[in-house]
Amino acid sequence: MLVHYKKRPRYKVQLPLTSLIDIVFLLLIYFLLTTNFMVNEGIKIKLPQAKASSPQTEKEITVYVDRQGRAFLGNKEISMGDLYRRLKDMIGGQENKLVVIRADRSAVLNKVVKVMDIAKAAGAGRLCLATEKEY
Fold first, then answer.
1. CATH no., domain 49-133
2. Residue ranges of the domains in the chain?
3. Cα–Cα distance between 53 and 117 in angstroms, integer?
4. Quick one: pLDDT at residue 47?
5. Cα–Cα distances in Å, from 42 out to 5, 123, 127?
6. In sequence order, what are the residues at sequence separation of 6 or more whose Cβ sits closer than 8 angstroms to the Cβ of residue 77?
7. What is the average pLDDT across 48-58?
8. Mean per-residue pLDDT for 76-99?
9. Strand pairing report for 98-103 and 126-129
10. What average pLDDT does the segment 39-64 reach?
């Protein structure tokens, strides 16, 4: 008597991708959340606190004022006369350009107002005094 074996189809090997996809999504969420906590670098100042502060999302010109009242554009100290010329060049003909002033909370108010006047005279359409959120 002849016995014929029926050929069974071979099992295909399948990798379990569910756990791999879970890990990829967890990494994606981790990197999305941690990029929100990046710190702005610049002059070391302590910003004043406000309850109603909101983050700025558009491109702006930032002027720093430290506790001694010195003005900084970028990371370089700049005199008040040069500040006017540099701001005028950076603003150009843009009417609605935002200038953010990040002043130390212990800075003399007169120096901060002087920087704001120079920015307005240079053609800044909008001025913003940076604060940090009070918790």
1. 3.30.420.270
2. 49-133
3. 22
4. 64
5. 79, 24, 19
6. 70, 71
7. 61
8. 85
9. parallel
10. 65
pLDDT at 19: 86
**CB neighbourhood size of 61 (10 A):** 18
Helix 80-91 to helix 109-121 angle (10° resolution) is 40
Per-residue pLDDT, 25: 93
Residues shown for the chain: 135
Q: Is the dihedral of CA 70, 73, 77, 80 positive or negative?
A: negative
| Dihedrals phi, psi of 107, to nearest 5 degrees | -70, 150
Q: How far apart are CA 33 and CA 104, in angstroms?
A: 28
b/e for 38-50, b at 16 or more Cβ within 10 A? eeeeebebeebee
Residue labelled with tokens 């950076």: 90
As a whole number, mean pLDDT of residues 39-49 equals 61
Q: What is the pTM of this model?
A: 0.57
